[in-house]
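Encode chain A's predicted structure.
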Amino acid sequence: MDPQEESWQGRLQYASLSDLGLRRANNQDSMVMMVAPSPTAWRQRGDLFIVADGMGAHAAGELASKLATDTVPLVYHKSANRSPPEALRAAVQDANTQIHSRGQASLDFKGMGTTCTALVLFPQGVMVAHVGDSRAYRLRANRLEQLTFDHSLIWEVRASGQVRGPVPDFIPKNVITRSLGPNPSVQVDLEGPLPILPGDTFLLCSDGLSGQVQDAEIGMILGCLPPAEAVRALVDLANLRGGPDNITVIVVRALGGVWRDGAGDSAGRPRPVHAAVWALAGTLAVIGAGLLALHLVLPGTASLLAAVLVGGGGILYRGGAAPPGLPGERPAGRGPYTATSCAPNADFSARLTEILRDLRQAATREGWSVDWTRLNALLDQAAAAAAAGDYPQATRCSCQAITFVLAELKQQGKARDALPKHTS
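Encoded structure for chain A:
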C-alpha cells in the first residue's frame, strides 16, 4: 500500500453510541457518521459527523431529528459549486425548511423541531455548523473546549450581560431558543475552520450527556479511553446519574501526521494579499516616476523606494505559509465558548470508586449474578493505580469496571432496576 494512502486511512479513530436512557419510551436522537471514501473526497468535503436531538409529541421529534441527519449530508455533498462552509450552512438551512414543511402538513407533527450539530474534519481544520443545545467539544491535551454556543435561555441570559454571577434558579435550564423546524427560517451558527493537531479528540453529544456529566468528567474520560470505550463509559455514567433523557455520543480522534501534512499542503498555497496593497505599490511607483520626470530626484526616489518596499512585502507575504483553514476562508464564529481543565485526578477517581462500591453492594444484596473474578481484578487494578498516583490508569480501569458490571446486569434485565438507585 502507498504510504500516503495508508496514512490517510489511519487518520481517525471514531465511535458512536445512542441510548434510550432510563425515563424515555422512545429515542428521539439521531446521528450520522460519513467518513470520506477517498483522499480526494476528504480534501474536498472532509469527514462529516452529526448529532440531532428531536423535540415533539408522539413520533414528531424522532422524525425531525431523522430528517436532519438525512438531509444535511445529502445537500452538503451535492453542493459542489459552493465552498464547504457555505454548503454546510445551506444544508442545515435546507433541513430546517424540510422539517418545517413536514410539520405544517400534519397536525401530529406541527411544531416539531430538532437540534443539529454537524462537525466536518478536513486536512486543514475542523468546521462546525450548529443550531440548538447539542454540543461539540474539542479535547487537546488536558483541556476540553466547547466549540458551540448553547441556544438555550440560560446561555442567552448569561451572554446578555444582564445577570452577573450564577444565573438565578427561576430561569429554566431546558428552554431552547433556537432549533430546526418550528420556524420557516433559522440562523445557523458556523464555527471555524479551526486547526487540528494529531491527538485532538472531538465529541458531539445531545444534552442527555451534557446535562448529567460535567465537562471536566467528559474530558477525563475522553483522555483516558479509546473512542469505542469512551462512548460506552460516558453513556453509562449518564445513566448512573438517572438517565432522564436519550443519550447520544460521537467521539472522533485525529491520529498520525496526516493533519500536519494537511497544514503543509495549505502552506504551499499562496496566501491572499489584499488588492489595496498592489494598488498602493502601483500608485507609489507612478508618482515616483512622475517626480523623477520633473527632475525632483529626492522625492521621486523616495516614492519609488516605498513602492518597492510595499510590493516586496506583498510578495514575501504571499509566498509565506498560509494559516490553517480552508482555502480563502477566515475562521467564523466566536468559539471556543468554554474551556475546562480535565487532567485525571484523585477526586474523580474516588467518585468512580464510590459508584462501583454502591453497584457492588447492590448486586450482592439483590443476588445478581456477576463475574466477580473479572470485576475484582479491575477494581484491584484501579486501586493500585490510584495508590501510585496514576490517575489516568485508575480512571481507565474504573470506567472499564463500570461498563463491565452494567453489561452483566443488562444481560439479566436488571440494569433498569439497578441504575436509578445509584444516581449522584
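Residues 288 and 300 are 4 Å apart (CA to CA).
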